[in-house]
Write a structure and sequence with these properties.
CATH architecture of chain B: Orthogonal Bundle
Shape of chain A: globular
Number of helices of chain B: 12
Distance between the termini of chain A: 26 Å
CATH class of the largest domain in chain A: Mainly Alpha
Number of helices of chain A: 15
Helix content of chain B: over 70%
Largest sheet of chain B: 2 strands, antiparallel
CATH topology of the largest domain in chain A: MetI-like fold
Oligomer: heterodimer
Number of strands of chain B: 2
Number of domains of chain A: 2
Strand order of the largest sheet of chain B: 1-2
Helix content of chain A: 55-70%
Strand content of chain A: under 5%
Strand content of chain B: under 5%
Structural class of chain A: mainly alpha
Largest interface: A-B, 113 and 93 residues
Number of strands of chain A: 2
CATH superfamily of the largest domain in chain A: MetI-like
Chain lengths: 313, 270
């Protein structure tokens, strides 16, 4: 039997680790890594060179097909395509809408999930399970369907307008407006956030809450001083996943949003396909990626910090 | 006493609003699948009919899309399991250099905007002759499953108590037997959740499959894009119900584990 060493962490738990680094582990992790490197890393790298004006090699075909292609004029390339995009008034409108929807929807999703999860943790009972179950339902519905269902519900001859017209009220057509995108993204993002946050809150021991109550803490204080700080990591994970998902969303704004301005996910696809301007399309993708990376760094940082605090690393 | 009843009323209203918000659109669309005709602003259809169902099943393009989806998704899940599960085991249990970088790398691959990635992949696909091919669609869908198939099982493997395994070893069980009867069995709920999430990620994937597969290969979600523009709403409703059946079945199977925290546990870096 292989020898094992036992080490104790700050909290005094006994942790056993197989001794020494394992080469088998390294070998096992190669296949998915290779897949990601070839089909995610490589295309992104090639795409980056293309956005900088490198039009030969793997970018030859796409450079021949596309329009308004800028060729590099320095050894490192050119920022001409970036300048195109930044000075395109349509892009600024799209960026504004994308950020607006991402921020508003993320706040709504997190507030809604947090209140449902807190209700479930503090009060519990059948009604809280009903709320959680309801919020999980969108997980069962493919995005294409949810987008289309929401479209028919809030659309010109949808339920909302039909229902209110029975009372002579002219309910606004929400489709093709930013409101419909927000409704759609909140609808589809809710399950993941609820699962993360509610499982984070369920993991907090009753004893902590009870003892705080015994010391005279009000329910608000229990929430702000105990529950939210202790569930900080799952809340941050839920927030960053939700925000990254909404930032790059495509189907929801395609079905529900206005034509102009639209979210960047749709515009990237338009520029690549309909407008045949692949270089500008990739430039937009890199800009969205930079925003998403900022969010991803917050997530990783929070994760590493909590792992360090609990002595796992 | 009065505060309690106000709270109770508030929570009941909250449940009603949430139920309306979540269920309203699905129910409204689903009812259309059985409506012969529906005129605005009526709240009920002019008649009930199964006519649209036969239309879907007799339409060869739609039937092909259904068949493609049912073939591609299982293949994607099996390949994903073969490629990712050993890595998940390694990440959960073994100590090797770059373990954390590996997990973070898999995650950051997920944070690049999907549609931008697919545009970039298209360039590579032209070079590799994968455009419009079955393999091309499989690979695109495979990419979306990797994060589920590595992160969730890794957390499940990490959570298996070592002393159980050691006890079995002490009792004379072989290494393989310990792995099969204890490690794998205890990690099974996590693996199951990963399989379900991967299947759905593949089955529901639309943007990449459309960009890479169309016009030669259509799956159910990519067919939806043209469906909603070219067919009456009732056909889209029937198709939506068909498309939702696998999700509902699979998620109902794994519901206990997903709500029990396997999914949430899987996304916390350990």
């Amino acid at each position: 039997m292989r020898s094992r060493k036992s080490t104790s962490t700050k909290r005094g738990f006994l942790v056993r680790k197989d001794e020494g680094p394992s080469l088998l582990g390294l070998a096992f992790s190669i296949p998915p890594l290779l897949l990601v490197l070839i089909f995610v890393g490589l295309p992104i790298l090639i795409g980056l060179t293309f956005s900088l004006g490198f039009t030969s090699g793997p970018n030859r075909v796409v450079s021949l097909i596309g329009q308004q292609i800028h060729k590099k004029n320095h050894w490192w390339g050119t920022f001409a395509a970036y300048s195109d995009v930044i000075h395109d008034s349509r892009f600024l409108g799209d960026l504004g809408l994308t950020l607006f929807v991402t921020i508003l929807s993320t706040i709504l999703v997190i507030l809604l999930s947090l209140s449902i999860a807190l209700y479930q943790r503090l009060i519990g009972g059948k009604k809280s399970s009903l709320l959680v179950t309801l919020s999980i339902i969108p997980l069962f519905v493919p995005v294409v369907i949810s987008a289309w269902a929401i479209h028919t519900f809030y659309g010109g001859d949808g339920f909302m307008r039909s229902f209110f017209s029975q009372f002579g009220i002219n309910f606004p057509t929400l489709t093709s407006t930013p409101s419909a995108i927000v409704i759609g993204t909140v609808w589809t993002s809710l399950p993941f956030a609820i699962l993360m946050i509610s499982s984070g809150l369920q993991g907090i021991p009753d004893a902590l809450i009870e003892s705080a109550k015994d010391c005279g803490a009000s329910p608000i204080r229990v929430i702000t001083n105990i529950l939210i700080p202790l569930a900080k990591t799952p809340i941050i994970i839920a927030t960053s996943f939700t925000a990254i998902g909404i930032l790059g969303s495509f189907t929801i704004p395609l079905f529900l949003g206005p034509n102009q301005p639209t979210m960047l996910g749709v515009e990237i696809s338009n520029f690549f396909g309909s407008y045949n301007r692949p270089q500008q399309s990739l430039v937009m993708a890199f800009m969205v990626f930079m925003i998403a990376s900022g969010i991803a760094i917050a997530y990783v940082w929070s994760n590493v910090k909590s792992a360090r605090e609990s002595g796992r690393i | 006493m009065k505060r309690v009843s106000i709270g109770r009323v508030a929570i009941n209203i909250g449940i009603l609003i949430l139920a309306f918000f979540i269920l309203g659109p699905i129910v409204w669309l689903a009812v259309h699948a059985f409506a012969s005709d529906w005129k605005y602003p009526n709240l009920y259809p002019s008649g009930i009919s199964f006519h649209w169902w036969s239309k879907v099943f007799l339409d060869s393009a739609l039937a092909t899309a259904i068949r493609n989806s049912l073939i591609i998704s299982p293949i994607v899940v099996v390949i994903s399991m073969i490629i990712c599960l050993p890595a998940a085991y390694a990440a959960g249990r073994l100590n090797y250099p770059g373990r954390k970088t590996f997990m973070v790398g898999i995650f950051s691959a997920n944070s690049f905007p999907k549609i931008g990635l697919f545009a970039a992949i298209a360039t590579l696909y032209y070079a590799l002759n994968l455009m419009g091919t079955f393999l091309g669609v499989v690979i695109v869908q495979l990419l979306g499953t990797i994060i589920y198939m590595t992160w969730i099982p890794a957390a499940a493997f990490a959570a298996v108590p070592r002393n159980l395994e050691e006890a079995a070893r002490d009792a004379g069980a072989s290494k393989f037997r310990v792995f099969r009867t204890i490690t794998l069995r205890l990690a099974m709920p996590g693996i199951l959740v990963a399989i379900v999430m991967s299947f759905l990620a593949s089955f529901d994937e639309a943007q990449g499959s459309y960009l890479v597969g169309a016009p030669s290969i259509y799956t159910m979600p990519t067919e939806m894009y043209s469906l909603v523009q070219n067919y009456p709403i009732q056909v889209a409703a029937v198709f939506s119900i068909l498309l939702a059946i696998p999700s509902v079945l699979l998620l109902s199977l794994a519901r206990k584990h997903i709500m029990g925290g396997q999914l949430a546990e899987g996304f916390q870096l350990k």
